[in-house]
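Quick one - inputs below.
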Amino acid sequence: MFGNDITIPHLLIFFPLVAGLITFFIKKDASVKAWSLFSAIITLFISFASLYYRNNTALSGLAFNYEWLKYMGASFSVSLDGMGRLLTFLTALCFPVIFIATFKTLYKNPKAFYGLMLLSQAGLMGVFLSTDALLFYFFWELALIPVYFLCSRWGGEKRIPATFKFFIYTFTGSLLMLIGIIYVYLHTGATPYSDHSFSMQAFHSVSLMPSQQNWLFWLFFIAFAVKMPVFPFHTWQPDTYEQSATAVTMVLSGVMVKMGLFGVIRWLLPLFPAAVARFDNIVIVLSVIGMIYASMIAIKQDDLKRLVAYSSIAHIGLMCAAIFTLQQIALEGVMIQMFSHGINIIGMWIVIDLIEKQTGTRKISQLGGVSQKAPVLTILLVVIALANIALPLTNAFVGELLMFSGLFKFSFWYTAIAGLSIILAAVYTLAMVQKVFYGTTNPLTATMNEISWNEKMILSVIVIIILMTGVYPQPFFNLTKDTIATIITSFK
Amino acid sequence: MFGGVFFKNKATPKYWAIAGLVAIIIANCLELQSGEPFFAINVSNMLSFNSFNLTFIAVALSCTLLYFLLSGRDIEKVGANTPEYFALIFFVLCGVCLAATFNTLLILFLGIEIMSIPLYILTGSDKRNLKSNEAALKYFLMGAFSTGIMLMGIAFLYGGNSEGSFFINNINLGEGKMPVMIAIGMVFLMISMSFKVSAAPFHFWTPDVYDGAPTVFTSFMATIVKVGGFIAFIRLFENSFGKVHGQWQMLIAVITAATLFIGNLTAVFQQSVKRMLAYSSIAQAGFMLLAIFALNDTAKEGLILYSAAYSLATIGLFAILIKMHDYTIDGFNGLGKQQPVLAVTATIFLLSLTGIPLTAGFQSKFFMLMAALRDGHQHWLVLFAVLCAAVSAYYYFKIIQAMFFKEGSQDVKDHGSIALGENITPAFKLLLIITAVLIIVLGLFPWLITEWLHY
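Output:
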């Protein structure tokens, strides 16, 4: 029933799924952490294996099909293309990093915490792998549910209303997308009302009238825009990031926001070319507004988590704008930046978490002089902060440069305005570094110690990835060449 | 099939009831599979048994079986006349079977009445409770009124038909527009059926009756009886008025939209879980009405699936609710710590009612949306339904939040959130888990039910 050979895509989905379910039944709390870290590392190895196959042009070895809802033309079909490999690798990489970085954090009821974390990993993998619209929707929602429970159970004081807002926003968005999916499904097939299929090929080959595309575009786009989030759908994001436990915030900001960008590239662009051509200006304007707006707010923030949350909105806004320019160079930038943004923001969260654990506060105004107490932490942080501003030699520089050149080809004025966000990013990031890490110590920071080995190790890994990607980004271009080529050709 | 009619007399104690039900289900399934009638009884073409009807009956009976197993003990607790309660429930079941198989308007009327009259009694069965009496009286008066309207509608249809026939597929619809008599009759029938399935604006009895009736019987009324009403509704309108679908579709669209809107919006403001579930049942009825709006094959498959998904989840939730000490949402605070099994299964039921993927509730909502979109008219209704579904997440998730993320009050910590004298047996837990697993299995493989339609 499941085909003859076990392939990498379904290992990537089912391994975390099974591991997560097992975690719920582990008796000893101590072994839960070890088990989940172990299984996350195994997943990472499976993902390495998928990267190794990148020269396999046939890709058939990586696809997996199973007739799932046989009367409806939906199948459990998953496969990997360049972008899929990139994002599954990011997902697989993030979870061990998160587990190691928060290894010392103690959670109430760790079984449920780690079990839900692994389940959300399975859901995310499914989103990036599925080539069937219904399956995509399935995983899209399934990734949300564990995260909802994680955010509401473990987190700050106001976590319940914050998460609820997040849930209602995304759930509404996804339901709208479901209507869109069903509508497109009913238009697949040669003759009306027969031979429908949810498969991606069928979806891509369906031809819709421009008038139909116009409203379908928004049904899909709102779902993706809420997830990214793009202005004006972003209001859930700072609250949720602030209130969630740091490990969950890392999942949300590092990986989950990529679901929105991924959805646009994988489903929205190929399905509704006419509508994309029509609405591209609106979307880019929204994104640019979001970038400037979020950057300005970030300058005023006193809470470190909120600062990073707003800076993330600005970065995502640039990626969304770059996608809609439909320039090859911009799309290359988006691909590499999706990965880099995930790595950088997780680095930021780790540093914030370390500071909060030692001093008990995240308020910038209450901190200062950390560099005197924890020099190694400071050095590592500065590299990550520079990556956040996209200075040359860091990974974000490559991505942002490409995206801005793409945007420039599209329109000079958008680029000029969006460019302001780089300056603003420098303002808030450097101001934060200065206030928190330099200056004189106060009673709160005077008692700080240097960070421990596992934290040093994981931050160094992140810094190494940042620098390596910044110096030699070529592997990423090779990896995602096929995806970009498909998109560019479909618009010519 | 006719076992359902004969068996009702034997159903004295609980175990007899369960055994009888199992026997009927087996007989029903055998017939469904072979297509041969189990008992050959001449019904003069008054009843029809096809795969759709039989599949629905199988679903309804299985849900009743589950209901007996989960709540049988609580039925015994309502009052002294236990055997009567079981007998009455079997009467209702008989009515549901008739309503699912009728071929003439007369049998439709009989079925609906057999279904309703025992319910009036069951609603008032808690004699010492004033609320229960009030609910029964209200239900009876309103029900009698809707019965009158239904009879009137049938009379119009009979009178409008020159040949004078009660057969549902024999109604003279005329060329082009419907004759006035037929149109009036149809509208009357639509009103009375809307009343039975508690669609707005004929829903006013629902919250009071569901709230006043003993909780065990609310569970039965809100699930099996309600979906029985829906089957009668769709069969009547498909067979009698299916050809002039375009002429009344807009009317149903408005009723659907009103039902969704009122049900969901009012449910948001409820503090009592029982009352919230009453409004949520109106909201779910709105979704099921989409099937009657669309009236195609997908809609019929979807309605059966919806019946199963909705009944399973609601029966499970009510079974848990009965055990609770405090029926308000705050009464659920901290349940996740005290009774993890109950809380986790309740979460699955609530997720299913919300329509989250992996649960049967998602598949059924999906079928409904698909049916309505396939119909191709009135896209606004689908959008509206989806927005209402998003609203429903709000009140269903309030219970989940209460169970897992809130601490119980001191009183709850001392005594537990389970009512005094109620004990949670391992068998009860096991049954809840089985129900939850069934919901997930149906959510993954909905064709386990819909496949039966293709026999």
